[in-house]
Specification:
- 28% of the residues lie in helices and 20% in strands.
- Helix 2 packs across helix 9 and helix 3 packs across helix 4.
- The protein is built from nine helices and twelve strands.
């Protein structure tokens, strides 16, 4: 898998909702592909073969540090610090699968993935077909919301049953990390039921966006079955179309993060409503003085100049310092609910 098309990156505006609440999706994806990792975890690309449920999934994978001395991994223009295709050591390793936001990439949360790998996890972030920085063809349709939970189940199936080192994983220790639309995907994987009429601010009745027309015509895709293998989830600034009734089946432990200032249709109020609606109280965190892009990795100088709206934080917010705390909290949550769990 190559990300050479980032050389041809052009700024385009895409919207996560049917109103003008937008994100610069292509640049958000590039944000995860342009920085240099400080961690020394193992790194590889993986590919889930196409099957009757969907196309091939071209994904990334981080693994615990190996004995080989880490070095520079050049992926043009991406530079990683780690060990390419490292020999994964250990048995009973926990797995965390990662779902990115709209128009993102498998590398969009590289700092968090590497931090988890340093803590002993195998981490498999997905590259959602039709809704990634290279291909936005399905992003504006409801079908993407139905297929992305299926993408995650297929990725988990592959890691636990087909990946050449699957025997080193513990199938009873699976976690999920989801950001923005990926947070929606994670909730669906736990049995949540969406109600698309809850957010007229995101889906105004007169909008001509395909997604809005599908909602008006009640062309709502069937809800995918939940994945009982997931034992804990970290949900970050999620796209929320859920009320308490829709969240009633979500009993898996959740760490829920919200940015205090929100943006692009995500608000602290919608996250707070989700907090109140979950039947099991989540491990709740609010990132003070943060806008929603704060959960993406710190920007290198070139990207900060090209995309100030994504890279510039609110006054008083230090993204580098925040990610040290954020990654530590995410790892500690999974440690409590996955890594130390006794498998049956």
């Amino acid at each position: 898998m190559t990300f050479s098309s980032l050389h041809r990156l052009r700024v385009r505006t895409r919207f996560t909702s049917c109103s003008g609440l937008g994100i610069r999706l292509l640049l958000a994806a590039a944000l995860g592909c342009a920085a240099t990792l400080a961690q020394a975890a193992g790194f590889a690309f993986i590919e889930v073969p196409a099957d009757k449920e969907g196309p091939a999934l071209r994904d990334a994978m981080w693994s615990p540090p190996c004995s080989t001395q880490p070095g520079r991994i050049d992926l043009a223009p991406l530079v990683l610090q780690g060990t390419r295709d490292c020999a994964v050591a250990g048995q009973g390793l926990p797995l965390v699968v990662v779902s990115h936001g709209a128009g993102g990439s498998a590398l969009g949360h590289h700092g968090t993935a590497a931090a988890l790998a340093d803590a002993g996890y195998v981490v498999a972030p997905i590259h959602h077909p039709g809704d990634n920085f290279q291909d936005l063809s399905r992003q504006g349709h409801l079908s993407a919301f139905a297929t992305q939970p299926v993408d995650m189940r297929r990725l988990t199936d592959y890691m636990l049953g087909v990946w050449h080192l699957h025997a080193q994983l513990d199938a009873g220790k699976v976690g999920f990390f989801g950001y923005s639309r990926g947070g929606y995907t994670g909730l669906m994987a736990m049995g949540a039921k969406p109600d698309w009429m809850l957010r007229p601010d995101l889906f105004p009745p007169l909008s001509m966006r395909p997604l809005c027309g599908e909602i008006r015509r009640n062309e709502i895709p069937a809800t995918p079955a939940p994945d009982a293998r997931i034992k804990a989830e970290v949900i970050v600034d999620p796209l929320s179309v859920f009320d308490a009734k829709g969240l009633g089946q979500v009993i898996t432990p959740v760490q829920l993060w919200a940015s205090a200032l929100g943006g692009s249709g995500v608000t602290l109020q919608s996250a707070e409503a989700m907090r109140q609606g979950l039947p099991r109280a989540p491990d709740w965190h609010v990132a003070a003085d943060a806008e929603r892009y704060a959960f993406l990795p710190p920007c290198p100088p070139a990207l900060a100049q090209a995309a100030p709206e994504i890279c510039r934080d609110a006054p008083g917010f230090d993204r580098v310092a925040f990610h040290q705390i954020f990654n530590a909290q995410v790892a500690a949550f999974f440690q409590r609910h996955i890594a130390t769990t006794r498998t049956p």
